[in-house]
Amino acid sequence: MADEPHGFCIIGDMEFSLLPHPAMPPQSVLSVTCTIRRRGDGLALTYAITAAPGGLRLPPSRPPERTDGLWRTTCLELFVADAGAAYREFNFAPSGQWAAYGFTARREGMAPLAMAEAPAIRLRQEEAAMAVSVAMRGIGIGALRLGITAVIEEIDGTKSYWALRHGGNAPDFHDPDCFVAQLPPAV
């Protein structure tokens, strides 16, 4: 494609629909989807949230910097695993803030993940929908297992937890059974 940066090899868009955890249903959120495009060692993601007009609570715009605790309010997340038990967690806030962590196994060995460059996060908002676009590099070019997730907070304080698959009686995005999206190697 002429508009793609030099050296990028594109794998077509993959769209995923997320499901709310049944123990914590949304009140005004109707749907959450994520479209992913692989670009060499990077990913372009677009999370789309549809809700009742004015129903979402969004954090205020902030400088695009690494910030812990983003999951306490509306936050889009991506879990990335290669082969084995180790995985990476990325948090993207509509505010522009982000976080990245590495784990050696399920909820073990958590450490800040070094990033050569910060993810670029952009919010587009309409009355009953929002889209958060994320561009990031340094994911790797091999096959990946992904857990695509979101925490959505509504104006009334309701929080819903969205994933491709849920297990257990409470939301747990770190559950390896949630890493169900398969991303083929970059070509």
Offer a quick outline of the entry.
This protein has no helices and 13 strands.
Q: What's the layout of helices and strands?
A:
Elements: E1 10-17, E2 19-20, E3 29-39, E4 42-51, E5 75-81, E6 87-92, E7 98-103, E8 111-112, E9 120-125, E10 129-136, E11 144-153, E12 159-163, E13 181-183
Antiparallel strand pairs: 1-3, 2-12, 3-4, 4-10, 5-6, 5-11, 6-7, 7-8, 9-10, 11-12, 11-13
Number of helices: 0
Helical/strand content category? mainly beta
What is the residue-mean pLDDT, rounded to a whole number?
A: 91
Task: Catalogue the unreliable spans.
Answer: 1-10
Order of helices and strands: EEEEEEEEEEEEE
DSSP strand (E) fraction? 35-45%
Largest sheet: 8 strands, antiparallel
Computed over alpha carbons, the radius of gyration is 16 Å
Number of strands: 13
Q: Approximately how much helix is present in the residues?
A: under 10%
3D shape:
globular
Distance between the termini: 15 Å
Keywords:
globular, 45% strand, disordered N terminus
Task: Explain what the structure shows.
The protein is mostly beta strands. Helix content is 0%, strand content 45%. It has no helices and 13 strands. The protein has strands at 10-17, 19-20, 29-39, 42-51, 75-81, 87-92, 98-103, 111-112, 120-125, 129-136, 144-153, 159-163, 181-183. The strands form two sheets. Strands 2, 5, 6, 7, 8, 11, 12 and 13 form an eight-stranded antiparallel sheet that branches. A hairpin with a 7-residue loop joins β7 (98-103) and β8 (111-112). The radius of gyration is 16 Å and the shape is globular. The two termini are 15 Å apart.
